[in-house]
Amino acid sequence: MSDALQQRATGLGDVPPARSRHAGKRSAVALFEELVVTGTATGDVVAHDRATLDERWRGEAETEKTAVVAAEPFGDGVAVGERSSAGRIRVYDQQTGDPRWQYATATDLGAPQRPSRFFLPFVADIEADEDRLYVAARRYERDGECRSFTSVVYAFDEAGDIVWTHDTDASPIGLDVGDRRLAVAYNRCPGSHQHGVVVLDAETGAVRYQWDPGTDSQRRVGDVSLVEDGVVVASHGDHCGYRLRDGGAEQWCVDLATPTVVGDETVYAYPNHVHATATGAVFVTGNTYPMDGRETTSLHPREHTALGYAPDGECVWTASVGGFASELGVDGDRVAVPGAQHFRTRDAEAHGLRVFGTESGPEATLETDGIVTAVALDAESAVAVTEPVVYHDEGEKRGTYRLLTAESRQ
Fold first, then answer.
1. pLDDT band at residue 5 using 50, 70 and 90 as cut-offs
2. Cβ(278)–Cβ(309) under 8 Å?
3. Which PANTHER family does the UniProt record give (predicted)?
4. Contacts with 52 (C-beta within 8 Å, 6 or more apart), sequence order
5. Which strands sit side by side in the sheet containing 402-407, from one edge to the other?
6. Distant-in-sequence, close-in-space partners of 261: CB < 8 Å, separation ≥ 6
7. Residue 244: beta bridge partners?
8. What is the Cα–Cα distance from 291 to 289, expressed in whole angstroms?
9. DSSP state of 362
């Protein structure tokens, strides 16, 4: 994506600017044939005409301190998930914006321990197939140094009735559905549940198999992606990428961002995302951290990096994604990565949206003033939500809260 290509943007209102460190998702976006639907940091759901970006309809939040953090097409509707005291799932008619049904996950997760952001019930991810909506929701608690989670994975039918649930005391971070399977990634396992990946039968919710990197810490898995005969996993526990056969047997393991000596420090980065198809897999890593404490002046050589792997586990390309990526937008063998803060270097020139092919690597880049925090992709377009940011050591506000669209191919 170059500046010469046609781009359109529309404002989404005013929000407090992000700071140097990312503070969790507060926006979401989904693409439809005629619409772009955006979930906002103020809890509204706004549908814009895809061609003109004129507003078509709007659904408003019912409670304060609500952010829409997930959005997914569901049949001829759109499903969104909140971070809020209720942790609602809302489903709207795609064309009219009429509410169809909603469900408060706090009914099962419980009320927030505190009213602050990270303690609010949180819809971590939403996926859909032809007739089911799958939702992963969690709630966090802390008592001194003891952290705990309550979480539920739901399967809803089109009417909003619960078909089955899968409950744990771990923290789900991502879902993928296909071929009657639902893969669930758990990034923290501080309780009795000790499996970073669980593959469920999508029809019944029964456990097909479970897998774990076998590490000692609470950190387990950052993301999971289904392939025809297994799954590909981005492991938080050991900072590696795995290809598993159905049943959980390991086919290959690759070093993504394992502890590395840089200067006089040993640092690592978390592999946070993965998207895999028959042609290969793309992993995306996050921030650098030292082995001791949280502060470091060193940068891991593979932080904020997209890495493309062939089906046999050979690394075929790598490329920078600029800053922290909160999610991936995917369309077949293509991946869109939103680039947000690089809180250690605070390089504003790294903000932007990048598109990669699983086999070929970098395809396009779109630079932005603000940080990019949500993205969706299809064969014709990429759409992104940009947010303003103020870095703590600079004081300058960069960017605005807006919806941005661009042609995804020349």
1. very low
2. no
3. CELL SURFACE PROTEIN, OUTER MEMBRANE PROTEIN ASSEMBLY FACTOR BAMB
4. none
5. 7-11, 402-407, 381-387, 371-377
6. none
7. 231, 250
8. 7
9. E
Asked whether 111 and 104 are in contact (CB, 8 A), the reply is no
Amino acid symbol at 172: P
Cβ-contact 310, 349 below 8 angstroms: no
pLDDT (tens digit, 9 = 90+) per residue, 35-90? 999 999 999 999 999 999 999 999 999 888 999 999 999 999 999 999 999 999 99
The residue with tokens 């792997």 is 309
Helices and strands (H, E) in the chain, number of each type: 1, 35
Cα torsion for 137, 157, 88, 102, to the nearest 10°?
A: -170
- For residues 226 and 181, is the Cβ–Cβ distance under 8 A? yes
Tokens for 314?
Answer: 């050979």
Give, for 188, the enclosing helix (H) or strand (E): strand 181-188
pLDDT over 90 percentage in the chain? 91
Look-up: residue for tokens 């270097």? 345
Residue of 85, 102, 84 lying closest to 93 (CA atoms): 102
Q: Report pTM.
A: 0.96
Token pair in block for residue 198: 């669980």
Question: Token digits for 328?
Answer: 């991936």
Residue 4 has pLDDT above 90, yes or no: no
Report the alpha-carbon angle 294-296-300, nearest 5.
105
Q: Which pair of structure tokens corresponds to residue 24?
A: 């969790």
CA separation (Å) from 212 to 38, 215, 235? 34, 8, 9
Q: Kindly tell me if the per-residue pLDDT of 188 is higher than 80.
A: yes
At the topology level, CATH places domain 18-168 in Methylamine Dehydrogenase; Chain H (2.130.10)
Average the pLDDT over 105-116 and give the result: 95
For residue 23, the model assigns a pLDDT of 87
Decide: 410 and 5 in contact? Cβ < 8 Å.
yes
The pair of three-digit structure tokens given for residue 123, joined into one six-digit string: 């819809």
Give CA angle at 197 (174, 203), nearest 5°: 75
- Domain positions in the chain: 18-168
Q: Which amino acid is residue 305, in one-letter code? A: T
**Would you state the structure tokens that stand for residue 399, as one six-digit string?**
């960017």
Query: Which tokens hold the place of 297?
Result: 């002046």
Both tokens of 101, joined, read: 């049904």
